[in-house]
């Protein structure tokens, strides 16, 4: 943070992330929108070459390691293993919503997938207790991740099924232990 200006690092990170995820945003558009949003503020006066140079510094800092693991593959494998593929669409939507939080930076993808399966199975009244016991995973971690997801929905009053009514959140919240 002291070596490089965070106001330059942030858009360079966005630029690099868009390339890694194969949703490339052109550097010139990034510069255009930064200028449009920040107006005449000289602190945000970056040119395309500044972002491209910072991209190279980011790549060096990451040691050119750009493999990103997402929860989708483990989600599909775990749902198939549990024999509850009918929860795929719902659990997939939950995984999508985890990208609005910092969970992907904190927990391994398979744990996020398990938490989404846990929430989906509770909301859809599927008994997965014995399956989770067979996995021998730390259910406290799964439940903590689940609580974070549900807290997100509760905070923003979102319905994972349709955009979440309060009467749907409360039963799930009641089944989970409170955070220690």
TrEMBL record:
BP GO terms, sorted: regulation of transcription by RNA polymerase II
SMART domains: CYCLIN (SM00385)
Origin superkingdom: Eukaryota
UniProt keyword Methyltransferase, yes or no: no
Domain Cyclin-like, first and last residues per copy: 73-151
Transmembrane segments: 104-123
SUPFAM superfamilies with a match to the protein in the record: Cyclin-like
Keywords of this entry: Cyclin, Membrane, Transmembrane, Transmembrane helix
One GO MF term attached to the UniProt entry: cyclin-dependent protein serine/threonine kinase regulator activity
InterPro entries the record matches: Cyclin-like_dom (IPR013763), Cyclin-like_sf (IPR036915), Cyclin/Ssn8 (IPR043198), Cyclin_N (IPR006671)
Protein name in UniProt: Cyclin-like domain-containing protein
Species for this entry: Aegilops tauschii subsp. strangulata
């Amino acid at each position: 943070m002291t070596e490089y200006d965070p106001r330059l690092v942030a858009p360079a990170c966005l630029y690099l992330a868009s390339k890694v995820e194969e949703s490339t945003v052109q550097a010139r558009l990034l510069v255009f929108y930064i200028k449009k949003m920040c107006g005449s503020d000289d602190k945000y006066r970056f040119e395309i070459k500044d972002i491209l140079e910072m991209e190279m510094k980011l790549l060096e800092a990451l040691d050119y390691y750009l493999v990103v693991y997402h929860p989708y593959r483990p989600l599909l494998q775990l749902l198939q293993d549990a024999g509850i593929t009918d929860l795929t669409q719902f659990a997939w939507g939950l995984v999508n919503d985890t990208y609005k939080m910092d969970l992907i930076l904190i927990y391994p993808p398979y744990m996020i997938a398990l938490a989404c399966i846990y929430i989906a199975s509770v909301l859809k009244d599927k008994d997965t207790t014995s399956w989770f016991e067979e996995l021998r995973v730390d259910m406290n971690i799964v439940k903590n991740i689940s609580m974070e997801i549900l807290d997100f929905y509760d905070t923003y009053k979102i319905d994972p099924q349709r955009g979440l009514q309060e009467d749907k959140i409360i039963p799930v919240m009641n089944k989970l232990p409170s955070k220690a």
